[in-house]
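Progress note, sequence design subtask.
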């Protein structure tokens, strides 16, 4: 057993490396964490990982960042929660800050097509492997398989991710009640806060705006973009449409959480202090929510009705990942070279214990050479 300082060093090293190499968005981040924390390091069982994945999708904030915090908590307690979150967020924030400085100074974004060309097929292979491993644990009954298929269909039909998760969870809980005659009990769900107008781009207003975003946005960073457009462009007129599109592009070409788009926007609006306050504001609620989740989740799993609800949420979360993987595949496998990169990566992941971070770096290098 590792000592407490040893576990903290493990958490810091793992999430710092992941923060520099986790391209591809939330689904890819989840896949990399599953491959490293569950398969290679054995920090927790697949069942426990699925519980964390399903639960973090039910609270506001960036789901993959909150999963990093939850894994840090499981490995090294409260200090691990804070350290895991900071180490995952910090590399992406610093890279985004550097891009924001260059954008303001030179008026354009750096070109990264070749890098992304090679990274996307590798990310697709990593996500596929995670779905294969987690699916064998999650889809253990016919009911859960059927729920997963329904959730996947709902995702393709455009249902909100939260509706998919809650629907799968409630159906699973209702099926448990029908089998046993036991009630499902109370289900606690976070409530969204109302949006208040902020007229000026002061530092306090900037912090409060991103604190609100971090408190009410469910799901991935892509949901955040809709909030940014509605408030920062349409309502408060802090940004132009072109600036928002550039901020979105930065979130795609940097590793780590898409929510570090806040760092870019904060720098555009109020320089270095704005970047720091926007970043702290958008991620601060997640630390609080995950802390509460760490205390509540073991109690939920001990209750059979709520455990059934969580089983349904888990298969719903995997269905959402499958829908993202389909979209990612269409964007990544654009020619035979990209398909070859994806197949080679999948073969290596399924047959070896290779760290996926090295595959991401190799894919980026290959993309630069090919492109």
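Output:
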């Amino acid at each position: 057993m590792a000592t407490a300082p040893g576990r903290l060093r493990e958490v810091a090293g793992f999430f710092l490396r992941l923060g520099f190499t986790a391209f591809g968005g939330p689904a890819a981040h989840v896949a990399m964490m599953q491959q490293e924390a569950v398969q290679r390091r054995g920090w927790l069982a697949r069942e426990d990982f699925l519980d964390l994945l399903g639960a973090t999708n039910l609270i506001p904030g960036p789901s993959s960042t909150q999963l990093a915090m939850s894994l840090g908590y499981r490995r090294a307690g409260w200090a691990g929660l804070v350290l895991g979150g900071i180490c995952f967020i910090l590399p992406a924030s610093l890279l985004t800050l550097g891009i924001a400085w260059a954008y303001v100074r030179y008026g354009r974004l750096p070109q990264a097509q070749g890098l992304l060309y090679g990274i996307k097929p590798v990310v697709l292979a990593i996500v596929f492997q995670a779905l294969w491993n987690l699916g064998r644990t999650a889809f253990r009954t016919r009911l859960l398989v059927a729920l997963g298929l329904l959730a996947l269909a709902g995702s393709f039909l455009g249902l909100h991710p939260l509706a998919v998760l809650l629907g799968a969870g409630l159906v699973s809980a209702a099926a448990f009640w029908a089998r046993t005659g036991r009630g499902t009990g109370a289900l606690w769900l976070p409530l969204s806060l109302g949006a208040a107008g902020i007229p000026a781009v002061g530092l306090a207003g900037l912090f409060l705006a991103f604190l609100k975003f971090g408190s009410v946005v469910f799901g991935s960073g892509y949901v955040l973009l809709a909030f940014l457009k509605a408030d920062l462009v349409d309502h408060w007129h802090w940004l132009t449409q072109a600036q928002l599109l550039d901020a979105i592009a930065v979130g795609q070409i940097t590793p780590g959480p898409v929510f570090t788009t806040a760092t870019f926007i904060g720098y555009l609006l109020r320089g270095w202090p704005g970047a720091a306050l926007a970043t702290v504001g958008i991620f601060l609620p997640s630390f609080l929510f995950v802390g509460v989740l760490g205390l509540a989740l073991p109690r939920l799993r001990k209750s059979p009705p709520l455990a059934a609800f969580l089983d349904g949420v888990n298969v719903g979360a995997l269905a959402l990942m499958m829908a993202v993987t389909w979209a990612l595949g269409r964007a990544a496998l654009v020619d035979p070279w990209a398909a070859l990169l994806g197949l080679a990566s999948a073969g290596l992941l399924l047959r070896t214990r290779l760290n996926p971070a090295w595959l991401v770096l190799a894919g980026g290098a290959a993309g630069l050479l090919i492109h």
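The chain has one domain: 4-183+287-370. Work on this subtask will continue into the next period as scheduled.
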